[in-house]
Design brief:
The complex is a heterodimer.
Chain A: H1 2-8, H2 25-33, H3 36-49, H4 53-67, H5 73-90, E1 93-96, H6 98-110, E2 113-117, H7 123-134, E3 141-145, H8 152-160, E4 163-166, H9 174-189, E5 195-196, H10 215-225, E6 233-241, H11 247-254, H12 264-269, H13 271-274, E7 280-285, E8 289-290, H14 291-295, H15 302-305, H16 317-336, E9 339-340, H17 342-351, E10 356-358, H18 359-375, E11 379-380, H19 388-398, E12 403-406, E13 409-412, H20 422-460, H21 465-478, H22 490-503, E14 507-509, E15 514-516, H23 520-548, E16 552-554, H24 555-572, H25 583-596, E17 599-604, E18 607-612, H26 614-627
Parallel strand pairs in A: 1-7, 2-5, 2-6, 3-4, 3-5, 9-11
Antiparallel strand pairs in A: 6-7, 6-8, 10-13, 12-13, 14-15, 16-18, 17-18
Helix pairs in contact in A: 1-5, 2-9, 3-4, 3-9, 4-9, 5-7, 9-10, 11-20, 17-18, 17-20, 20-21, 20-22, 20-23, 23-24, 23-25, 23-26
Chain B: E1 22-24, E2 30-32, E3 42-44, H1 47-55, H2 81-90, E4 93-95, H3 98-103, H4 110-118, E5 127-130, H5 134-147, E6 150-154, E7 174-178, E8 185-189, E9 194-198, H6 203-212, E10 215-216, H7 229-235, H8 242-245, H9 248-251, E11 252-259, E12 262-264, H10 280-283, E13 292-299, E14 301-302, E15 306-314, H11 317-329, E16 336-340, H12 342-350, H13 358-374, E17 383-391, H14 393-409, E18 413-414, H15 417-439, E19 442-452, H16 456-473, E20 481-489, E21 493-503, H17 510-527, H18 546-565
Parallel strand pairs in B: 5-7, 6-7
Antiparallel strand pairs in B: 1-2, 2-3, 4-5, 8-9, 9-13, 10-14, 11-12, 11-13, 15-17, 15-18, 16-17, 16-20, 19-21, 20-21
Helix pairs in contact in B: 2-5, 11-14, 16-17
The chains are: A alpha/beta, B alpha+beta.
Chain lengths: ~650, ~575
């Protein structure tokens, strides 16, 4: 107790940006309100709407009050105290790469810094602030979703700890956009504090990195484009959890049981969680990436020189492309540095061997997968060089809500499902599989390139490189919302995939052809089995769209429709693809069709409407149907 | 007035007069020699320490220039006999002497001076000609067309854009057309306040001679001791006192230029005319690519009754810039107003001569105490504006008050006439400093730009930061000296002037490194919304950015003028385009 208190009251004198002109949060708000940028938009709106500019100015002030942080050391100390208590109960350990923290400390003094953590849990930003406080670094101001404000006291406390709040969507509201953008830029420009936000936009419910959002990123890049700052550091941060706090919440949500609104009482209920154990957290602070270096030679400076800098300006096409490239690059860096636990490997093996797997075999295969993962560049943390058995046993113990050991066999923990109705069995089972999938998912982006080559090899049943590549390229396009690919480098990705497969002796390549080696078939079939839920899932969803769906529908109609469709197939035993129940896959598959031009997306007053191009959907479905081999019911191929 | 053999008066391998230079005397103290400048013969006690501290330089490590030109290194003069015969027939004076030719084969870029001190030029003019009037120039250009020669006009030789360098691949005979003997004031028209002057006249001579009749042009570029009227026109020069007198484009009433197509001029000498695009604007800034400017009618003014210097200390550069912006906004800028940053303030401080009396030193101490201790200015942050007022005594005093009142609003404190005057004197002397630096492994140069007001601070900060970063990357051991000043104010922006120098010990190819860094600095300027040049011009040094600066079509417009006026590229110095 006293140590937590001492920690909270420690002398806190963080290093700061060399160009910092210190000021209070209220001064920042006033600077934002009176900035040319915001004043310009206020005048414009006044002219267009006929409203008096005083009223609009007041509205702007309200937005600022709603949004702005009011960081106070007292609140920070309070948080430090409570968090240190809570974290100690929840987690066994928090591991940080020290040299990353040192690099960050250096970076904070040199240029404005943008922290870009991965987003798997609400714990992310609390933990990060806690960490920076511990290392005597400037606390970041954090872009948090406005839903937090619903949590009465906690919202206010978060605000005082440095969070600022943004509405989830404000595309149409020019005043909000202007005020928000200027607020972020002001803090960045004068180096007030590192700005932190999540590229993924929201917590990934699947632990699989979400495709990046570009809005905030382009805001924080703008001061550099306009040369209001010399440079900006982007720092990718990978936070991985041995066990994710919200895992079951996510699984319910993915299956369509609505997510509880954030409320203080909800958080109190979460206290139940406090008695649980969530294992270790790994935080890897990546190398700060200089925006200036990234932009060198890429940005045409003319557009920024010919318009006054305070006028809102739609970014040019090459800027938009650049922003998108940077976003993907940062996410790929997050993925590269994401620590993978033994349990992640075990989950990936287990999911290919349901419903039950011999414990010894699980250990053997997990070890085998460990080698493969390392070959592919995965960053594995094997605790204290524990022997495999102990590591996996402790993983099983930590995840006893998902799996358990029965008579030397590892089985899914779908207790209570046996006796229930068919529907209930399916639901419970899906829940367990999705939770288990959350861990396997952490491997996917490391494995996706070689795996899609493996899948393409199987699908084409050909050795001709050209054909395999064209199939790979098709899959890459289809899964562009599902996995993270750097835009426009399909061939490079293919070559990397081939290279990694060659590295693990799974294939041999010549100028024209690709051959699986004899021992490679194990790797190839493991890899394609790993991604089969996605192939089959998409196949089911496409089939739904091709046969069952109406010609035009809204997203609200689509999700329950496809869910019912898949549910019925599962009930009848016509498919084993439980993961197709996940709304995440469903949305991604739909987005893929939109991108491939098979579905048209139109913005209506009440959300989006989709209309299907039957022919195009059928064509894509054919690609899948003709080429995906039917899965044997229980295929313990390994 | 200069003779033909300029090297007798001016340095052959550095800036300015032979008798004026910085040296370290026997006591190891810095001293400025000669009697031409106010600083002449004075000892600068703190300068040595400043150099050592700023550059990490040591007086023990010298890199001396060779003592004189090695005539054997000089490329031979290749001149066609027939041309020589025709030239002799015109009775125009000429020379094929190696020293004469080398002297006219370069300007004052760092790499040019460095080449003089340590290396060679691969290509220099083959022959120097000295026309004495417009007609002589017509004859020379005719001969050049007849014999297919290349002419490079030469005025004062103060170019800092590689404009005078001979293109290495030029196979034709290169004729350096030295305008220095065309230096007469042809007439003065007191009714219209204009004077017609031959283009070879050097700035200080022009002012001296006009002053005899009670007039001046008021055009005072920092190079005015050596640069010529024709050169000003050819580069779009800017003068220190442009706030009263205007830049060269505001001063010029009429230009006569000899081109391979013939003579271009206007039919009248009027303040303004609406006859299509102004042909003067094809000539001004043409950098010797179209022809030779021979005669210029320029505006003159009565010599002002009263001049007063002044200076203001600001707590920081930001406040200083804000004050200059306000002065520009109220359109009350004095003849000159300049703001130097802290590094340049300290630099100027290091050039303070030994004070003669205890009393002045006491006063200085008191001033310093007042500003730093009493007013709380940080000596490592504060910056100084220097001012020059000109006109009727009464109006000057009124004007002065107006400007100081504005300065006060921005936290400025008046810091005396003397500091102001010293500031302006230093601009003339500073050019001599590079030669001293070169003796101690320090290379440096100045460059300039113009920029909208709202970007001045960002540009200054980013360019300095870029320089620091590039130096580090290129292996420069000691942090570079980079400093800037806002030298001109306009309604819509300002001119910013940078000095940049570093200690190159340990670097094998310092000139290359220097050029890379300078190029990076220019890239940075352009990225910050600054111009390619405010008054130095483009020459060959900054050609690569022309397309970006004025667009493809813009460049095509200039090219088509060149093609019409000089289809055979007689004026083949390859500047600008």
């Amino acid at each position: 107790m006293s140590s937590d208190l001492r920690y909270a009251m420690k002398c806190y004198a963080p290093v700061i940006y060399k160009g910092l002109s210190p000021c209070k949060p209220s001064a920042i708000k006033s600077a934002v309100l009176h900035s040319e940028q915001v004043q310009y938009v206020i005048r414009q709106l006044a002219k267009e709407t006929g409203e008096s500019s005083d009223i609009i100015q007041e509205a702007a002030m309200e937005i600022l009050d709603e949004m702005g942080h009011s960081m106070q050391l007292g609140a920070v100390r309070f948080f430090a105290f409570t968090l240190s208590k809570i974290f100690k109960r929840l987690f066994q350990r928090v591991c940080v790469n020290e040299e990353g923290m040192q690099r960050l400390q250096q970076a904070i003094q040199e240029h404005p810094v943008v922290l870009l953590p991965s987003h798997r849990s609400y714990v992310d930003f609390l933990m990060l602030s806690y960490l920076l406080y511990t290392y005597d670094l400037a606390l970041p101001v954090i872009a948090a979703g406005i839903d937090f404000l619903g949590m009465k006291i906690v919202g206010e406390l978060l605000r005082r700890a440095g969070a600022f709040f943004m509405r989830r969507s404000f595309g149409g509201n020019r005043l909000y956009w202007a005020v928000f953008a200027e607020y972020v830029k002001t803090m960045l420009r004068n180096g007030y504090a590192p700005v932190e936000f999540f590229l993924e936009g929201t917590r990934s419910r699947t632990a699989k990195t979400l495709t990046p959002k570009f809005g905030l990123l382009s805001i924080v890049m703008e001061p550099f484009f306009k040369r209001e700052v010399f440079d900006t550091y982007l720092v990718p941060i990978s936070i991985s959890y041995e066990r994710i706090l919200e895992e079951s919440l996510y699984a319910y949500e993915l299956l369509g049981v609505p997510k509880p609104k954030e409320s203080t009482s909800g958080l109190l209920k979460a206290r139940r969680i406090l008695s649980d154990n969530f294992g270790t957290i790994h935080i890897y602070v990546g190398q700060p990436v200089s925006l200036r270096t990234l932009a060198s030679g890429r940005i045409n400076r003319c557009p920024y020189n010919l318009v006054p800098r305070h006028l809102p300006q739609k970014p040019s096409e090459d800027i938009q492309e650049f922003v998108s490239d940077v976003a993907y690059k940062m996410e790929l860096l997050q993925i590269e540095n994401m620590v993978l636990s033994p349990w992640v490997l075990a989950a990936a093996v287990l999911l290919q061997n349901l419903p039950a797997m011999d414990f010894e075999l699980l250990i053997e295969k997990t070890l085998w997968l460990k080698g493969l993962t390392q070959t592919f560049g995965g960053f594995i943390e094997w605790p204290d060089n524990l022997c495999a058995k102990k590591a996996i046993t402790s993983g099983l113990a930590l995840h006893s809500n998902v799996v358990c050991l029965v008579d030397g066999h590892v089985v899914l923990n779908d207790k209570g499902a046996e006796g229930g109705a068919v529907g209930e069995i399916v639901f419970k089972r899906a829940l367990a599989i999705l939770m288990c999938g959350t861990y396997r998912n952490q491997l996917l982006n490391v494995f996706v390139r070689p795996s899609l080559v493996a899948v393409a090899l199987q699908m084409t049943r050909s050795f001709r490189k050209e054909e395999v590549y064209s199939c790979f390229s098709f899959l890459r396009d289809v899964f562009s919302d599902e996995f993270i690919f750097f835009p426009g480098i399909s061939l490079k990705d293919f070559e990397e995939g081939c290279f990694l497969l060659t590295k693990c002796d799974a294939i041999q390549t010549t100028q024209q052809e690709i051959y699986p080696t004899d021992k490679g078939s194990v790797v190839i079939s493991f890899l394609s089995a790993m991604f089969r839920p996605f192939l089959e899932g998409y196949q089911l969803i496409f089939r739904y769209l091709s046969k069952e769906a109406k010609a035009a529908f809204t997203e609200k109609q689509f999700i329950p429709g496809v869910r019912n469709f898949v549910f019925q197939l599962l009930e009848k035993g016509n498919t084993q693809c439980y993961e197709a129940l996940s709304s995440d896959i469903q949305k991604n598959a739909l987005a893929a069709l939109v991108q491939l031009g098979a579905v048209k997306k139109k913005k209506m007053t009440n959300g989006f409407t989709y209309s299907i191009n039957q022919e195009a959907v059928n064509k894509i479905l054919d690609m899948f149907d003709s080429r995906i081999p039917v899965q044997k019911p229980v295929a313990a191929r390994l | 007035m200069h003779g033909k053999a300029r090297q007798e008066l001016l340095k052959w391998n550095g800036w300015g007069y032979n008798d004026s230079k910085f040296i370290f005397n026997k006591k190891g103290q810095a001293e400025f020699t000669g009697r031409r400048y106010r600083l002449g013969g004075m000892v600068l006690p703190t300068f040595k320490e400043w150099i050592e501290k700023t550059f990490g330089a040591s007086l023990e490590h010298k890199s001396t220039s060779r003592a004189s030109l090695n005539v054997n290194d000089v490329p031979p003069s290749v001149v066609n006999e027939e041309f020589l015969r025709d030239l002799i027939a015109t009775k125009i004076s000429y020379s094929q002497d190696a020293e004469d030719r080398v002297f006219r084969g370069h300007g004052h870029c760092l790499h040019e001076i460095f080449a003089l001190r340590e290396g060679i030029f691969r290509r220099i003019p083959d022959i120097v000609v000295w026309p004495v009037c417009h007609e002589d120039v017509v004859k020379i250009v005719e001969l050049a067309c007849k014999h297919s020669l290349c002419i490079i006009p030469f005025g004062g030789g103060t170019s800092v854009s590689s404009a005078l360098e001979c293109p290495e691949e030029e196979k034709r005979t290169i004729v350096s057309l030295d305008t220095s003997q065309m230096n007469r004031i042809l007439w003065i028209d007191e009714k219209n306040l204009t004077a017609c002057v031959e283009a070879g006249i050097v700035g200080q001579d022009l002012e001296k001679q006009l002053a005899e009749s009670g007039f001046c042009t008021g055009h005072e570029p920092d190079s005015m001791e050596f640069s010529s009227l024709g050169g000003w026109v050819a580069t779009r020069a800017s003068g220190m006192k442009k706030n009263i007198y205007g830049n060269i484009e505001d001063l010029v009433i009429h230009i006569k230029m000899v081109t391979p197509r013939g003579i271009v001029e206007k039919n009248c000498q009027v303040p303004r005319m609406s006859t299509g695009p102004d042909i003067h604007h094809f000539i001004m800034g043409s950098e010797g690519t179209l022809g030779v400017v021979t005669e210029v009618t320029i505006k003159i003014r009565p010599v002002p009754e009263y001049q007063k210097y002044g200076s203001v200390v600001f707590p920081n550069f930001e406040r200083g810039v804000a004050c200059l912006r306000e002065v520009a906004k109220q359109r009350c800028a004095p003849a000159s107003i300049r703001l130097v940053d802290n590094a340049q303030f300290q630099f100027g401080h290091a050039l303070k001569p030994q004070v003669a009396s205890i009393f002045t030193s006491f006063l200085d101490g008191l001033k310093k105490f007042y500003i730093t201790k009493f007013k709380g200015f940080d000596p490592n942050v504060l910056c100084v504006a220097t001012l020059l007022f000109e006109g009727d005594r009464e109006k000057v005093l009124q004007h002065e008050k107006q400007v100081y009142d504005i300065a006060t609003k921005f936290g400025g404190l008046a810091a005396g006439e003397d500091n102001g005057q010293r500031g302006y004197m230093l601009t003339f002397v500073i050019a001599y400093l590079r030669d001293l630096g070169l003796d101690y492994y320090i290379i440096g140069e100045s460059f300039e730009t113009s920029v909208p007001w709202d970007r001045v601070l960002d540009l200054c900060r980013n360019v300095k930061e870029r320089i620091a970063r590039e130096c580090k990357e290129k292996g420069v051991q000691f942090a570079p000296f980079s400093t800037c000043r806002v030298t001109q104010t306009y309604d819509a922006g300002a001119c910013v002037y940078f000095y940049f120098a570093f200690n190159y010990r340990g670097i094998s190819d310092p000139i290359h490194v220097y050029e890379q860094i300078e190029r990076a600095a220019r890239e940075e300027i352009l990225a910050n919304g600054g111009s390619l040049s405010h008054h130095h011009g483009v020459g060959k040094l900054r050609k690569r950015w022309m397309k970006e600066s004025i667009s493809d079509v813009g460049l095509g417009m200039l090219r088509s003028v060149k093609e019409y006026v000089d289809p055979n590229n007689i004026f083949g110095n390859k500047n600008l385009l």
